[in-house]
């Protein structure tokens, strides 16, 4: 006699929601069809933000160069800072990595995230990683950005001019300083590289599809992974 096993409806719904984006990732073949959209560009773009269960979800928020999400963002809690005694005897925070200015801390002149500091690569493995500025610029230049709403969430449909395929980028805002989610009417996604000691994000809102915005690295932003 064959046995038929069934899941309770609630458990079935949870299972579906937890696997809708990255739960089915095959790290031996990064970017299975359930996980990326091939827009005909130099990289393939994930269907969802890192940590999200559907395209309209914001996912998790990360400080630049950190690989664990958190609820409060500040220089005090930022991974790549340390406290030292100043010449006046008081404690000050300086940068311990990704720094090119001697007055700000240890100089290493690193401007691109090491793989072990790239949240997308650490969480997803394989060839998944955070996008470069050039890859975001390609997404801006070679796709049509249309303001739309998906499941009640505002954002942009980003549609390839070459093959007509698209991804949805929701408005996510950002955290920092503190625990407050700011500017919910815009999207901010981390870029994997810096310009000197300056960090920036791919920025988009109503009237501004795909642009650049300087933002402090200890702030919490969403991440949209790519894979080669």
Beta strands, count: 14
Could you say which overall geometry the principal axes of the C-alpha atoms support? globular
Estimate the strand proportion.
Answer: 25-35%
What is the helix fraction of residues, given as a range? 10-25%
Elements, N to C (H/E)? HEEEEHEHEEEEEEEEE
State the helix count.
3
State the separation between the terminal residues, measured CA to CA. 48 Å
Largest sheet, if any?
Answer: 4 strands, antiparallel
How many independent structural domains?
1
Low-confidence stretches: 1-20, 23-33
Strand line-up in the sheet with most strands? 1-2-14-5
Q: What integer value in Å does the Rg equal?
A: 19 Å
Q: What structural category arises from helix and sheet content?
A: alpha+beta
